[in-house]
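Q: Mannose-6-phosphate isomerase, please. Structure only.
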Amino acid sequence: MLYPLTFKTIFKDKIWGGQKIKTILEKDFSPLPNCGETWEVSDVEGNVSIVNEGSLQGKSLHELVEEYKGELVGKHVYEQYGNRFPLLVKFIDANDDLSIQVHPDDELAKKRKSGFGKTEMWYIMQADEGAKLNSGFNRELTKDEYVKAVADNTIQDLLNIETAKPGDVFFLPAGRVHYIGKGLLLAEIQQTSDTTYRIYDFDRVDATTGQKRELHTELAVDAIDYHHYDHYKTQYDKKLNESVNAVKSDYFITNVLNFNEEVAQDYSRIDSFVILICVAGGLTIETQGGYSLSLRMGQCALIPASVNNLTLIPDGDMTVLETYVP
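A: Structure for Mannose-6-phosphate isomerase:
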């Protein structure tokens, strides 16, 4: 019988990583010197999540999808994605600026035989004073203007820069140039893909190899959306004790739940799994079948499609992201 699942954290050492995974999220990533990312729910080949507790402990997420199919992910989700779990959830600690980068859409990724495209979103959990990020361009661009800016090393002059604070949401469709700036801790929800085209890496040198990291400037050219948009930060109502929609896309829907009182959630109308991502405070999840699970900031639970009714019991003030496939 399926129940709310938690998974062993996969830790990623990154050149720009820091200590907040340990100091704020209280996850011990020893023996890594620092940690840039944790992968919490993943079916990326070579980085598949392993169940952490309960009767299914030790099973991989991929094995569970193969075994339980629509009972785990939802009938229409299984029909669409088959045995590949469609979403990847991470926490990211940027102790330095990440590279300027872009991801391909499904069509280009398929053409280049690199799996799915990568549409994603960020929820800012903690931000140092004045921390910034990049989402998109600050004006309309042509492909030729972009190519010239990369060649001239003036690409940074064309980027839309946003100050970020806790609770901010940024939706990044495939094709949008972006980078996470120094001083940000965030949750990332994305398509199951690890395809990234690195455009510029601030001339950093890897301490181990003594080399600059590989750039993918030519691959990026046909992946980029060169349009300028009026708004890059996602606007949503921050209400207490009410589920509020923040992102609605073809790949995932994400709601923000700010609660300080008990709430009953009915997922019977959703033909999909639900991932609950605790981004502030803590809570206990109880099912009608009597299963109970506690989450704190920096932890996630995968609610199988067959588990329709939950009670969420907050430990004081808590914020949870609720994401699923439409």
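A: Brief note, in case it's useful. The chain has seven helices and 23 strands.
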